[in-house]
Design brief:
single chain; Transferase(Phosphotransferase), domain 1; 2 domains; four-stranded antiparallel beta sheet; three-stranded antiparallel beta sheet; 7 helices; 9 strands
């Protein structure tokens, strides 16, 4: 569906209006319905709120809270430098959102920079607020699983088990994709960037077979060695090919992110002491 900025006169507010055209395939209609039902039942500060759904003639629509800001994909391609501490906060909030949906046995299945939206706190503009968006291909992994006739998702960020038809999906596909996104955010490049021109099949093959290279290859040379080691371990753990050796949960992944922040804090403290002597 296409998204428009619309004005709601009854509530005197702007909304993001997602409209589905009538001539779309059945798969698109199912995706639209899934997103509407799931998101309407969510209540979390890091998930976009669905305000209302409806139909006008043959047009189905979905009204969501209107977000002012940018997605991480836009920030990365703009070349803007984001402080590492702010990046960690963005990913920590994303993991809060993932923990919320994972406890409800729902996997997002489309985690990527474009679906992590950054806005500002309404009461304190200095604070960044993350909103996880687009639940169109999300799936429940409890009970009877829906058979997937096609590989769905973004080939740049697919976990190995998602890169095959009817792979056994659970919440850990999101942790893998977030690990790839983290790699891209801290290095400024995708781990398989060289293969982008080779097409989606090649990217899927790389995710299935090739280990994600350590991000330390592309970190600034002055990065503290203890921080480099933790960042490498964080990505390796998140993006393990074997699901059983991946982070077990969003909370476990978030805990290691806090360790990274702790090492960064120690380094900043020592640097401050040196500057003061």
């Amino acid at each position: 569906g296409r998204i428009y900025k619309a004005y709601d006169p009854s509530m005197d507010r702007y909304v993001a209006l997602k409209v589905l055209k009538p001539n779309v395939p059945e798969s698109e209609r199912q995706r639209f319905h899934r997103e509407a039902v799931l998101a309407a039942n969510f209540s979390h500060p890091n998930l976009v709120r669905v305000l209302e759904t409806g139909q006008h003639g043959e047009l189905r629509w979905l009204a969501m809270e209107y977000l002012r800001g940018r997605d991480i994909g836009h920030v990365l391609t703009s070349g803007k430098q984001v402080h590492f501490r702010v990046l960690c906060d963005i990913f920590s909030q994303t993991l809060d959102a993932l923990n919320y949906i994972h406890t409800r046995k729902i996997a997002h299945c489309d985690i990527k920079p474009e679906n992590i939206f950054i806005t500002r706190d309404a009461y304190d503009r200095r604070l960044v607020v993350v909103k996880l968006i687009d639940f169109g291909i999300s799936c429940s992994y409890e009970g009877v699983r829906e058979l997937r006739k096609h590989i769905t998702g973004d080939p740049r960020y697919m976990a190995p088990e998602q890169a095959v038809i009817n792979g056994p999906l659970d919440h850990r596909v999101d942790l893998y994709a977030l690990g790839v996104t983290f790699y891209e955010a801290v290095t400024g490049r995708h781990p398989f960037e060289e293969a982008f021109s080779d097409g989606p099949k090649r990217l899927l093959e790389l995710h299935r077979k090739e280990t994600i290279p350590p991000p330390s290859r592309h970190l600034p040379p002055h990065t503290p060695s203890a921080l480099v080691d933790l960042i490498d371990r964080f990505v390796a753990h998140a993006c393990a090919k074997n699901v059983a050796t991946r982070f077990r949960s969003a909370l476990e992944m978030q805990s290691m992110l806090q360790r990274i922040l702790g090492v960064l804090g120690e380094h900043d403290g020592k640097r401050g002491e040196t500057a003061g002597t």
